[in-house]
Specification:
- This is DUF4405 domain-containing protein.
- With 81 residues, the protein is mainly alpha-helical.
- It has one domain.
- The protein is built from three helices and no strands.
- The chain has helices at 2-35, 42-63, 67-73.
- Helix 1 packs antiparallel against helix 2.
- The longest helix is centred in the N-terminal third of the chain and has 34 residues, at 2-35.
Length: 81
């Protein structure tokens, strides 16, 4: 049972990080497209771009265990693999 839990946990966190990275890429692209002239207010484009960059960096940092995650959240931050 413990092995099944570990496999599920690892799979879940990998899926969570990959989907978060893709969400960040999507929001960056959507925000950039809005800023460059689609028919949506400019502040919405900047907001989408900022959220996309934050989502991308957060999930990328967690997936690759980058140093800025430990700098921002401490050595034992809230999302553990």
């Amino acid at each position: 049972m413990n092995l099944i839990y570990k496999i599920f946990k690892i799979t879940f966190f990998v899926f969570l990080d990959v989907s978060g990275i893709l969400l960040g890429v999507f929001l960056i692209g959507l925000g950039s497209a809005v800023i460059f002239g689609w028919q949506v207010t400019d502040w919405m484009g900047w907001l989408l771009l900022a959220i996309g960059v934050c989502a991308f960096l957060l999930h990328l940092g967690h997936y690759f265990n980058l140093k800025y995650m430990h700098w921002l959240f401490g050595s034992n931050y809230f999302i553990q693999k």
